[in-house]
Amino acid sequence: MRRFAGITAVAAVLGLSACTADPPPPIEQTEPTRTPAPVPQLNTVVVAVDDVGAGFNPHLLADQSPVGNTVAGMVLPSAFRPVPDPARPGASVWMLDESVLVSAEVTSQAPFTITYQVRDEAQWSDSAPVAAEDFRYLWQQMITEPGVVDPAGYRLIEDVGSSGGGKTVTVTLREPYPAWRELFTHLLPAHLVKDTPGGFATSLAESIPVSGGQFHVKSVDRGRGEILLERNDRFWGTPARPDRILLRRGGTDAQLAESMRTGDAQVAQMHGGGSALLAQLGAIPHVRTGTQLQPRVLELTLNGRTAEFADPRVRRAVLGLLDPDLLATVAAGTESAVVAARAQVFAPSDPGYAPSLPPRPGREQSLELLATAGYVPADPATVEATRTPVPEAATTGLLAQGETPLALVLGVPENSPVADAVAHTAADQLRGAGVAATVTTLPPDELYGDALVRGTVHAVVGWTRAGGDPATAAMSRFGCPPAIPGQESALAGPDPAPTPEPAPDDDTVPEGDTAPEGESPDDEIEAAEAQLAAPSNVSGVCDPALESELAGALRGAGDVPAVLTGAQPKLWDLAVTLPIVQDRTVIAAGPGVEGVTLTGAIPAGPLSDAQNWWRTTQ
């Protein structure tokens, strides 16, 4: 019996062990599979361009470029925007930008007053309002900063007033100004720019920090040659169709053609506009091509403030030694792309343009002119050393006045490769005639400011604005320097020898202006000195007999086109400015994008309809 009980106990232990060693399989818990949400594909249009450009302030001469103009139009708000005038090829009609303004109208003739009503919802992308502060800031900078674009209209302004929380802007001018709709294009974010190091002159050199338009600048990569613009989600008006616009360096003609062929780029805008590139792109199936003149003209302007160019004979001779056709070819890149500029004030794209360049003196005649001014071939051993390097090949027949050589410095703004190439070619031509010429590259604010006024550069090669009001351009570029009551005006005429524009510390109202009633003498002096330190007349030379005609044209008096056409011989006789070429670009659009018209008003450029583009293939 005990034996049986033991066996039973052992069996029970073994049975328990078996149950413990072999438990049932655990219940597996499975989590539901999560499908990741699809990442939305952004609609990005890629535009092939030449390069990023010098900077992004559209009001500076040094920043005039097709890319800079395009970015400004996409990002910065404007009171009016240009559209092509169907009745006059090349002309523009300035239309109210209804996304920025409710209204803008002349509300008084005496004094001439414009009242702008800014939309309450108009704001910068950092939520600061677009307001009177932005209007006032732009006005102040345009009349005090060097190297700005044709500021004669802004110099007529007496005051910019604010009411209604900054949304009602009242602009009072000293005189009527028919081109008032061209004022306050591309407003700048005053609340940021004025407090940024470098301010108006340099704070927009690398980007535009906030937007008041349909796009904002996301990034600028100069190394890769790219600018990425994204739709501005804070824009209160009609949103842009594409999510992003990528401006990218297009490379060589062959690289550009391959990008358009493969769809890597959908749109192209490239400098030059030569027949070879146009034919190459036009051969690609379904690629539309065209050319359009850009709103800039390359000019060489002599500085009449220098001792050498105070003499009109020297100015005429030096310009006579230059070959404008060769310089135009260098600027355009190819001979087939040249759109020669051969008139003062008027650009080839302007309705009133007609070539008016007088016959160019030959080399011998130019050297004779220099001889009458005292510059004759000299023995290099007897000539004083200069800071201007002279190649050994040019020392034979070096022109000098006594022991002083004719040494000239051509100034070029930084990051302007086309102007730099033209300046070096011009220097080569001058050295070949015995002139010790060299080229220097300077920051734009220095070049158009101290370097001009102090006479450290004898000439400037740079871009000027085209497509705007010709009367404004004429007064800005050829108006006489200001004078202080009680002192002689420093006016430089064509005969017999001009007086150079005084330095800013000389006692000398803006070009063509008179002091408004109630303005104190101190204010008048301050305004004049500011203009002398930041001259819009780059040469500093003018014709006093022509001053009243230009001032009348600015006011709209008489037949303005006839006045400016009739002024051409007198402007050429000043011998200060050599227009060279108007920039032209090839434009193209592939089959993978819609809404690209390939046309536009000259001031706005052919890419001004980017808000309507849509990439149809990814």
TrEMBL record:
GO-annotated biological processes: peptide transport
PROSITE patterns linked to this entry: PROKAR_LIPOPROTEIN
Start and end residues of each stretch annotated as Disordered: 477-522
Residues that span the membrane, as ranges: none
Presence of keyword Signal: yes
Domain Solute-binding protein family: start-end pairs: 106-478
Bias (Acidic residues): 503-522
GO MF assignments: peptide transmembrane transporter activity
Keyword Signal: yes
Secretion signal, residue range per the UniProt entry: 1-21
Pfam families for the chain: SBP_bac_5
Listed name of the protein: Monoacyl phosphatidylinositol tetramannoside-binding protein
Species of provenance: Rhodococcus rhodochrous KG-21
